[in-house]
Specification:
11 helices, eight-stranded parallel β-barrel, single chain, binds 2-phosphoglycolic acid, about 250 residues, globular, alpha/beta, TIM Barrel
Amino acid sequence: MSRKPVIAGNWKMHLTKRKASSLARAVAAAQGSVESRRSVVFPSFVHLDHVRRNLRNSNVVLGAQNCWCKKEGAFTGEVSPYMLRDMGVQMVLIGHSERRHVLGESDALISDKVKVALKAKLEVMLCIGETREEREASLTFEVLARQLKALKVVKPAQTDRVSVAYEPVWAIGTGLTATPQMAQQAHAETRRLVAQLLGEETAALIPILYGGSVNPGNAAELLSQPDVDGALVGGASLKIEDFEPILAAAPTA
Ligand code: PGA
């Protein structure tokens, strides 16, 4: 069963309106009419509309970095997944480690976000991953199992809108990368856990991306692992000179 590689750029809280627009055009040009991989960009909320316009006529997927867990209401400063959908956003990142560890998001909140985002007809990329302390205490698989429970809310008809990004927290923005073997081991376990939650057939189809200091030098080897179906790229997604070779490293199946 073949899964199409997904290469995603998480722009975090970077770029200006002008720089985000020109990076979007460059990603669209690099993606071209290639159909053997999906490319996704996650700009800041305030740049979404500009980026959307610059991606017009391209097949690059527009994603948001977060959303709130309700359709609407008195939630000052938050953004509903329905608003994102209405803006032309197709995908949303949920549970990124910076939201879990810097903003204090709980597993329960993340699960509610997954539920509402799927109801709003968005695609969801759920981020999971252990901290350095958890890895050193041999708790990695336990952490993955706990965080993946957020997928319990996924209904059978929604499974084709779900992907998972395994991002070991100690590898994010640090220059430390999991070895391809470490990534493969965590991805295989993630797939096994997804099978327990959503069934074998779904687990075989769900893309599992690796994230954490992916760069042009390590992308190809990480992406060659059997259960690594793509990359979620932070720092190296901000310059097209770095992101383009990562896009090109996606196997063509
Ligand atoms: P990084 O970030 O590539 O800069 O490590 C990855 C991420 O946070 O998604």
